[in-house]
Amino acid sequence: MSCLTDRLSADILADCKNLVFSGIEADLLLIPHSQVDKTASTFDTENPMLITDLVLKAGASGYLLEGVKQVNGYNTEFVPGDDQTLDKFRHNANGRILSPTAENRLQLSKLAKNESYIVVAERRWKGPDSNDAFIVLGWDTGLYLNESIENPLENEGAITIGLSSRDGMLESEGAYVLLDTDYDTTKLAFDNKFASEP
Description:
mainly beta
């Protein structure tokens, strides 16, 4: 299987006019993994790290974890395998519930009910022509709630949450880039939570 023995095929270059900087655009979008239509979703034929259309099943929608400044975020980490396991990646997303209302507590309770989620984030650094703005985590198996902490004396009283790949259910790749035609089209889909018609 050549996919397991791939090697570099191009230089990894720095574009001095598009050097990276930190942060995301505040919000995260959580999409139930089971509601993604992977048959209809598409990838770029030349670059398998680029999703060109993220399609949800009929009537499905993502859900916004609204943030401000940099209270929400994500990271990925390489997890080397051993003689019996493949090299994989762990995806993580974290955020805060800024209004701990009864309704938001209900959604947190539902988030804890063993469903996995794909997470979509918009980076502040968007790359040349804004083609690298959107990141997708959890494509293979999704992220699960693994932490929820409420302490009224910390984080200004917000409830902090963390989602992560589970051990034994790690991702085959790092974060994917999502670009559906162009930035404006992708941004519109994100703002509409990738909702599909019933």
